[in-house]
Amino acid sequence: xxxxxxxxxxxxxxxxxxxxxxxxxxxxxxxxxxxxxxxxxxxxxxxxxxxxxxxxxxxxxxxxxxxxxxxxxxxxxxxxxxxxxxxxxxxxxxxxxxxxxxxxxxxxxxxxxxxxxxxxxxxxxxxxxxxxxxxxxxxxxxxxxxxxxxxxxxxxxxxxxxxxxxxxxxxxxxxxxxxxxxxxxxxxxxxxxxxxxxxxxxxxxxxxxxxxxxxxxxxxxxxxxxxxxxxxxxxxxxxxxxxxxxxxxxxxx
Length: 253
Ligand SMILES: Nc1ncnc2c1ncn2[C@@H]1O[C@H](COP(=O)(O)OP(=O)(O)OP(=O)(O)O)[C@@H](O)[C@H]1O
Description:
Layout: E1 4-17, E2 20-28, E3 31-33, E4 37-42, H1 48-55, E5 63-68, E6 71-72, H2 78-88, E7 89-93, H3 104-112, H4 119-132, H5 149-161, E8 167-171, H6 179-194, E9 198-202, H7 206-209, E10 214-219, E11 222-228, H8 237-250
Parallel strand pairs: 4-9, 4-10, 7-8, 8-9
Antiparallel strand pairs: 1-2, 1-3, 1-5, 5-6, 10-11
Helix pairs in contact: 3-4, 3-5, 5-6
This protein binds adenosine-5'-triphosphate (ATP).
């Protein structure tokens, strides 16, 4: 039986500004499966990032429930939510927020030390993860400004993974990268997922979305499509591309 890691019930998010209410997420009932690489797609403004922020506990819903790893997020106050996020969530964004005055290794360690006080163990783990994403020893003492965009994003992924998150949340992780750098980042995400890491990623890019095994399509705050794919494999790229293309055409993408 697949393990449900996040379950939402009647999840709603409404923004109010200037006396006008905008209902961005409307009564969403979603179950996300542990181990999946779930992709959230939809047109601009459909509520993808809002959904990602709500289910990861970065923002509170207006109404409804979010059960994440058997915790009801609505019952947590802001401090408890911050601890919950630190222990359970990793985040990767389009903008890569590495600290410019710290080396690559220190950027990763700074995140890790928030949860694990055993520095020796942490250093070993950070180095292992950096190697895993293709950031070799000669780059560990470099500063973020000395890295390419793709390298910096791969360091960002390591920083997000250092505390063994239950889910890695990614919002347009390749949005600011050129094609080669984007492929290197997608290969890292695919590899992590194939090693068991659950990933939930927002993207508007089809090539990026092809890495997922489940595609949710959001339109006007409602999930109107849910496509299951097999785990990513280069061998069946053409077939996969066609399946996703057909699905997106049906969604009016
Ligand atoms: N903090 C906020 N305050 C007010 N409105 C907001 C806020 N955050 C998002 N919105 C509005 O909610 C709607 C959905 O935004 P969201 O960023 O979730 O869409 P998206 O599907 O991720 O879009 P894009 O693909 O363009 O990034 C938009 O109309 C946006 O202006």
